[in-house]
Every structure is written in C-alpha cells, then in structure tokens.
From TrEMBL, chain A:
GO terms for molecular function: phosphorelay response regulator activity; protein-glutamate methylesterase activity. GO terms for cellular component: cytoplasm. It catalyses: [protein]-L-glutamate 5-O-methyl ester + H2O = L-glutamyl-[protein] + methanol + H(+). Gene3D superfamilies: Methylesterase CheB, C-terminal domain (3.40.50.180). Keywords: Chemotaxis, Hydrolase. This is protein-glutamate methylesterase. CDD domains: CheB. Coiled coil: none annotated. PROSITE patterns: CHEB (PS50122). Residues 1-190 form the CheB-type methylesterase domain. It comes from the Bacteria.
TrEMBL record, chain B:
Transmembrane segments: none annotated. Keywords: Methyltransferase, Transferase. It holds the Pfam family CheR. One of its GO terms (molecular function) is S-adenosylmethionine-dependent methyltransferase activity. This is MCP methyltransferase, CheR-type. SUPFAM superfamilies: S-adenosyl-L-methionine-dependent methyltransferases. Residues 1-251 form the CheR-type methyltransferase domain.
Length: 190, 275
C-alpha cells in the first residue's frame, strides 16, 4: 500500500455541509489525491454523516481511523469529538484533548498538522461557518507552500468564516461550491 | 496558537532530555499530537527561543513536572460514551458478579471521572463491596484530584444526562453533595479505589485482573508502543478477563489480536480467550 502523494483538506462549520454535498458528485472516480473533511457538528454517531456523504460519490467515504494510512481516491471524515491530525508518515492520529475554538474536531488542528506533514503538497478549502476555526490553519498551509482556497463568502450560508480567512490569511483562490470539484480534479491531474 | 515554532526534531530532543533526566518516556508517542502540545506550551509560557525552553526543562525539575503534565492529555468526563457504560452494566458486570473478589485496573485514569462512574455501576449492581479498582496514571497531580473525588458542579447536568443514557435509574445527585463550585462524591465510592502512579511505558504488571479499562490513552502512542502496552494488558488479565478501550481504539491488527474476541455489538470491549 502506498500513501496519497497529495492531500486536500476541507473544513466547514455552520452551512458547511451544503457545499460538501455539492462538490462530492463532481469528483472524479480516478482521483489521485486523498480528501479529508472536517465538519463541526453536534457529537453524535459519526456514521450518520459518513453515510450521507457516501450517497453523493462513487469514491470510498469513511471515517478516518487512527494509524490508518492515507490513500488516494478516498474521502476521510473526521470523527465526532476527536481532533484529527496528519502524521509525517502519512497516517492519521486522533486526539481527544481540549476543544480548540470551541470545537472538536478543530479545523485548525487538522489544517496545521497537514501543513507540517505534507508541506506544499496540500490544498485547504475553508467553507461556510460562524467562527474563525480554520483561519490559523490556512495561514500555516500558506506558509508551508500549500494552496489556500475559501468558499466565496457571497455563496456561504454563514460568511464569517470565509471572510475572516480572506481578511487574515493569504488566499490563493475564492471558489463557488460548483467550481470546487473541478478544482480538486485538476490537482489530481485528471 | 497553531504555529509550529518548534519542529519535530527539536521536540524529539526535548523528549530525550525528559527521558534521560527525569525518566518519563514520551519518545514513542505519536508525533503530531505531542508536537502540537509542546508547541502550545512553548507559546503559553512565552519562551522566546528553543534553547531557553530546553534549558528550563533540563535545569528546573518543577518546570519539567509542568511540562510532563501539560503535554499529556487529561480531558475526561463521567460516563463518557454512555452506550459503553451500558454495555459494561449489561454484559460485563453479570460475569464479574460470579467471582468472589473483583479486581479492576483503570489505566490512564486521569482525574478519575470515569473511575467513579464505574464505581457507581458496581455499587448499583451490588458488587462494590467485593471489588477493588486500581486507578493509575503517570501524572501524580491528576491522581491527587481523583483521590479527592471532587468534580466541577457545572458539569453535573451533563454527567447526569450521560448517566441516564447509560441506563442509570437512580437520582444521580444522590451520589454527591454539592458545595459552591464542586460536587463531592460519596466516600463509599472512593473507598474501593486505589489511586496510584503507574507509567504504562516504563512500569510492568502489578497484579492479575478480571477487567482492564484503558480509554483514549493508546491513541497517543505509536504502533510499537501500542503493541507493547497491549501485551502488558494481556499479561495482566486472567483467562476470560475483559479489556475495554476508547471508542476509536481497536485490537484489530495488533500483536495480541488473536488472544481476544470482541463482544457482540459496537462497543470496544474484548474478552481474553487464550492465555
């Protein structure tokens, strides 16, 4: 088994589910990257979200498990009530430490660890949300040479999160939800 | 607070210092999480350089103690994952009840919320009188909190909900007396708990148990250390004893997997079927 050479990390909070549901059907089934999705939500059985997202794509959608090797063509969902971290050996770690930005999973935690582990080989998309979790992570992604993307605030249910990202971080691209799948497919070289 | 000011190699140096000077071994912890916590502490305590941080840890034992406490995770709650406690109550306790004397090891117990939760289960099953729970952690400060049996009053609403979801039928508030900020749990619950320091990385087995509970500890270890600690647990369990892990932890693909069989259902409880 080989690990994914490139990672796409997606974070969203209030209103963040809709753009994910919009982008999933457009993803190429021969995707060469791994996709990691961190959505804030009430902690209940994570499988509900995983099952919902799985209905929108032919790609494998699964909850990220600790020590699991990150593989291309797979969509990983951060489990409820744990932080999801990316290790340098391209596996996942879970962490049940204190909430960050009132959130667990925290988007910042996943983005920052992805920046450290994957350096320039990562694109981060920050979606709709009512707090600024993910903004620091975007700054880290940018500093490590990765690509930073936010949902067009005009299309976001709650535009605080993408607006804060634009205000504080260096953003490479602002995309409509309808454009996101094509962006990810293009990274994959499809 | 997310900047990685100290890189993985520098963190490795610090962990080596702490091991050589103080005997605490974090070198086989999963790097991403420990890096995050070391960096968090570095910023929290406003160090201006790695060299200063390192010098302080080496030369100031009190600060080294703080370092150890801060880089380990001590987040816990009572009846965490209620369905897990439901399963202990329904499936494990009836079997434990058949033993004349029940020995339980709660490893990595932190401040003890889950230990008191389990003591409540034993009490309700009328087994507490013939049980002893060894509650261990490497961090002596959290053990002291556990010994006091006092938890924040503001959490009790949540804990009471968890308790009921876990199948509790008593009035949860009957288990503690409230004063100002804290809920003090009944003495009889604590009487059967022995809080004691034990380091899973460096210390060996100290008894044989019918149940070992170790939740959300293994996720912080690398694969090799996980295997080592699971072997320690396996060696510390009686035949047909139970091993209970955190909701995202598993015995699958580990060295001891073949010795255990998971209980039916989705809970992370295994039974030792082979010595």
């Amino acid at each position: 088994m080989t690990s994914a050479p490139y990672l796409v990390v997606i974070g969203g909070s209030a209103g963040g589910l809709q753009p994910v549901l919009t982008l999933l059907p457009g993803l190429s089934t021969s995707l060469k990257v791994a996709v990691v999705i961190v959505l804030h939500r009430q902690s209940h059985h994570a499988s509900v979200l995983t099952d919902l997202l799985a209905t929108r794509t032919g790609l494998t959608v699964k909850e990220a498990e600790e020590k699991e090797l990150i593989q291309a063509g797979t969509i990983y969902i951060a489990p409820a009530d744990y932080h999801l971290l990316i290790e340098s050996d391209r596996t996942f770690s879970l962490d049940d430490s204190e909430k960050v930005n009132f959130s667990r999973p925290s988007i910042d935690v996943t983005f920052s660890s992805a920046a450290y582990a994957y350096k320039s080989k990562v694109s981060a998309l920050l979606l709709s949300g009512a707090n600024a979790d993910g903004v620091e992570g975007l700054i880290d992604i940018h500093q490590a040479g990765g690509t930073t993307v936010v949902q067009d605030p005009l299309t976001a249910d709650v535009d605080y999160m993408p607006r804060e990202a634009v205000r504080q971080a260096k953003i490479d691209l602002i995309l409509q939800p309808e454009e996101m799948a094509r962006f990810i497919n293009t990274i994959a070289g499809v | 607070m997310s900047r990685n000011l100290i890189n993985e190699q520098e963190v490795a140096l610090l962990l080596n210092d702490v091991l050589e000077k103080y005997g605490y071994d974090f070198t086989d912890y999963a790097p991403a999480s420990i890096n995050r916590r070391v960096n968090h502490l570095y910023q929290l305590d406003r160090f201006v350089s790695f060299a200063e941080f390192r010098y302080r840890i080496i030369s100031d034992p009190a600060y080294a103690h703080r370092f150890v406490e801060e880089i380990t995770v001590n987040v816990t709650e009572m009846f965490r994952d209620p369905s897990f406690y439901q399963a202990l109550r329904m499936e494990v306790l009836p079997v434990l009840a058949t033993y004349p004397f029940i020995r339980v090891w709660h490893a990595g117990c932190s401040t003890g919320e889950e230990v008191y939760s389990f003591a409540i289960l034993l009490k309700e099953a009328k087994l507490l009188h013939k049980a002893i729970i060894y509650a261990t952690d490497l961090n002596t400060s959290v053990l002291e909190k556990g010994r006091r049996g006092m938890f924040r009053l503001s959490q009790m609403q949540q804990y009471s909900r968890n308790y009921m979801e876990a199948g509790g039928t008593e009035d949860f508030s009957s288990y503690y007396t409230a004063n100002y900020e804290y809920a003090k749990f009944r003495e009889e619950l604590g009487e059967k708990i022995i809080f004691s320091p034990h380091n899973l990385v460096t210390d060996s087995s100290f008894n044989e148990f019918q149940l070992i509970i170790c939740r959300n500890v293994l996720i912080y270890f690398n694969k090799e250390l996980q295997d080592r600690v699971l072997t320690l647990f396996s060696d510390s369990l009686e035949q047909l004893g139970y091993l209970a892990l955190g909701s995202k932890e598993t015995l699958n693909f580990t060295k001891v997997a073949r010795k255990f069989k998971q209980l039916e259902g989705r809970e992370k409880i295994w039974r030792k079927i082979q010595l």
